[in-house]
Amino acid sequence: xxxxxxxxxxxxxxxxxxxxxxxxxxxxxxxxxxxxxxxxxxxxxxxxxxxxxxxxxxxxxxxxxxxxxxxxxxxxxxxxxxxxxxxxxxxxxxxxxxxxxxxxxxxxxxxxxxxxxxxxxxxxxxxxxxxxxxxxxxxxxxxxxxxxxxxxxxxxxxxxxxxxxxxxxxxxxxxxxxxxxxxxxxxxxxxxxxxxxxxxxxxxxxxxxxxxxxxxx
Length: 217
What we know:
By secondary structure, this protein is mainly α. It has a single domain (4-213), classed as Tetracycline Repressor, domain 2 (Orthogonal Bundle). Helices cover 76% and strands 0% of the residues. The chain is built from 11 helices and no strands. It starts with a helix and ends with a helix.
């Protein structure tokens, strides 16, 4: 029997899908603890019993939401891997930044959820998180910075996390940063991509050359 999430995916116009979409936005804006089922039901325009009928308790809805996002991000990584195959590292990084930044800008609630809930110590331990650790290892392998998940070094993970942190903060902080830059949204997106590439591509490719050819500064 299909799960509520599978039913929502199969019928994007259904009430299940509408509730899920509203929940993504509200959980992204207010985090797990700051969002209530009553808030979600009110935003959808239904009573609370209808929400429970379609999704159950708040944790059930949140778990489905996180599963949905984790699987979405995995699909983005597959797209990255397909497009970077057999290309030089600089080109791999360029493509990966474009694809992942486009995805996160199109879905700002993902960045908000990561920043809200990954560092929220009061959230119940049984509530799942977006799998940043898994995605960090996937990036390392796709960029040929490691041969397998088992041998991704701590240093490589830390540097990839630094990239994640930059992207997430630029996206979640758009309403703060964009007025400072005084540019429209498309110009902001292009500027963030260019800035990330300016910092990241030379740093990673320099290290890769040193590792491959024994070149030291």
